Amino acid sequence: MLKEKSFFINSILLGIVLASKIISMSLDISQITTISVLLISILLFVINFRFKINIKYLIADVLIFIIGLIIYFNWQIFGNNDYLGRNLNLFIYYGIFAYMILQHKYNIKIVINTLIIIYMIFGVPFIMHDFDLYLTGDLMAVSYDILPLFLAIIIKFFALKDKFTWKHLICMVILLPYIYFLLVYCSRGVYLALLLCLLFCEIVNGITTKKLLIFCVIICIIMILLINIIPILTFINDFLNSHNISFKIIEKNLRLLKEGDVSNGRENIYPIAIEGINKSFIIGNGIGSFNLKYNTYPHNFILQIMYEGGLLFLIPIIIPAIYGFYTILAKKNISKNMRSFVIFLFCASIIRLFISYEFWKEMFFWMYLSVSVLAMLNKDIMIDKEYNNGNSNNTNLQKS
Predict the structure, then answer these.
(1) pTM for the full model?
(2) How do residues 335-351 score in pLDDT, each as one tens digit?
(3) Which of 243, 235, 244, 159 is nearest to 197 (CA)?
(4) Is there a contact between 289 and 309 (Cβ–Cβ < 8 Å)?
(5) pLDDT tens digit string along 282-325?
(6) What burial class does residue 320 get, using C-beta atoms within 10 Å of its C-beta: 0-12 exposed, 13-18 middle, 19+ buried?
(7) Which sequence spans correspond to the domains of the chain?
(8) Which residue among 182, 255, 378, 390 sits deepest, i.e. has the most Cβ atoms within 10 Å of its Cβ?
(9) H/E run at residue 298
(10) Segment 237-258, tens digit of pLDDT
(11) φ, ψ dihedrals at 237, nearest 5°
């Protein structure tokens, strides 16, 4: 059984890693995330060091090794370039060191609370930024930097069922800078991720007929709003402007809808990526080749994987990615805590990677793959206070 002290420290350290993006953004130090992943992975290894070899972890190690091997052969076939070196470096940090972090046991409630506290601490330096001067792409990046906070709050109250108290109300007041940014500047993908997180939390807790009916009504309302989205947004925007209030997200989406470019230019990139995939379907065109040739990325992680590494690269990544989704929806032989953590990582990464960003750079994506593999092997790393009391829900944990 884990010592309570090391168990507590593990959870604090993981919470710091998950909140490292906001530390990096608030302090304008770009390497905070990679440095924290490296140092905390080593620290956790020292704290939890033991000689016992776990076969299940060895199987997961093999998958990491296969991905690394594919990167190596890709380099041998297509040669070196600046993007290959950068992506290999990111894989070492996020694919290997972040995976090492997930070798240990954690209390999800402590992890979530640590993450929220760190966001509270950095609320003041966060609000000091003049976001009106930010470009659209920069605002999108900040949107996903604050996404983990709101996912953590949803999981805390809707999946883990924490009771809302006056202390939480005080916390919400401290978190107002992030709430303001969410309402005024946030990207569309963030809202979608939050809605999916709510839905997944209800699935984990079990959907009743009443809840299903509520969701159906909500979906119908959303469909009606989408059908009439332009006049609704126009009315809201005109009303706000008449009171000298500006909401960037409303103005941006209204402009894109009127221009008929809801994809924000992505529809011009997708055909280029698909054409390149068709030319080299099995082994791809080389890691970083799309960036090198077009000075951008495909804005869809599946297209990027296929373009760079072909089917051989897609298979070892897509299998755990799909299984993680299955874990959220239907897997019953791991704890709700573990499924909640999978929800957090899924919503913090997959939605963003479907519409923007590069999968190499997304730490949460690599952590999602790692946790999905562990779920595939019935290896549960998220436990709570019942663990120490021998709760029957955690029998799988005790066996491992």
Answers:
(1) 0.85
(2) 899 999 999 999 999 99
(3) 159
(4) no
(5) 999 999 999 999 999 999 999 999 999 999 999 999 999 999 99
(6) buried
(7) 4-227+263-399
(8) 182
(9) none
(10) 788 778 787 777 777 767 766 6
(11) -65, -45
